[in-house]
Amino acid sequence: MKTMCRVLDVSESGFYAWRKREPSHRQRENEQLTEQIAQAFQMGRGVYGSPRVRAELQGQGIRCSKQRVARLMRQAGLRAVHKQRRVCTTDSHHNDPVAPNLLQRDFTAPAPNRKWLTDITAIWTAEGWLYLAVVLNVYSRFVVGWAMASHREESLVETALWMALGRRQPLEELLHHSDRGRKSTSLAYQAVLAQFPIQVSMSKKGDCYDNAMMESFFSSLKTECVHRQAYQSRAQAKQSVFEWIEVFYNRQRRHSSLGYISPVTYEQQTCL
Fold first, then answer.
1. I need a surface site. Which of 23, 176, 237, 261 has the fewest CB within 10 A?
2. What is the gyration radius of the CA atoms in the chain, in angstroms?
3. In 3D, which of 58, 6, 1 has the Cα closest to residue 33?
4. Which residues are in the Integrase catalytic domain (predicted)?
């Protein structure tokens, strides 16, 4: 100890006095806040960065700056998972009629159920691919319809659409936007849309950015749920995805585009 104090140019008496000193008030506050940050991080399933963690703390009545939260998260080794780029796999090689792009990349809506987006993605399991079709409400990012199956036939996207229609029963004119994939352009799918006051909009060929919000949703799903585990069966993947969508994403996950509240809370606060 004498040698260390001499090398570091510290007096022995000063070192021992430092060891006996009680933690400062600021240090005790940081320790308590770090515990609260860790709890908020766990509540966010390890996918929240410092802005969402801070929003979670503020929701609990805990006031703190974003810089302080970011610093304490770094010191505690709490890092959110990062999104990976999704590859577009739309099959647009068909002769079905297509609709014009009425959405024009305007991912805003004045009220719920004025604009819906839809798409399909694939999830790998040890039993083979599981396909997921989703209908997303642009206004609140709420998933209004979904369906999963071992195939990607027309019935998959129809099932997701019927769930959305049954859940929301849109009475005013609704814009339904999709890519030009064979499932969305099929006569059977279009016949379902024709039964309701729905305008049909489709992306330009090979342009994923025309349905960017839907792509972003699938990116979050893969990053925060699918890629964090290896599914041994389709049934296991179905349970995991269902729980992420209905329990976490729709009702708990804080969305930066919604002011760091969940889709359910956003609709409740803005549609009274």
1. 23
2. 25
3. 58
4. 108-270
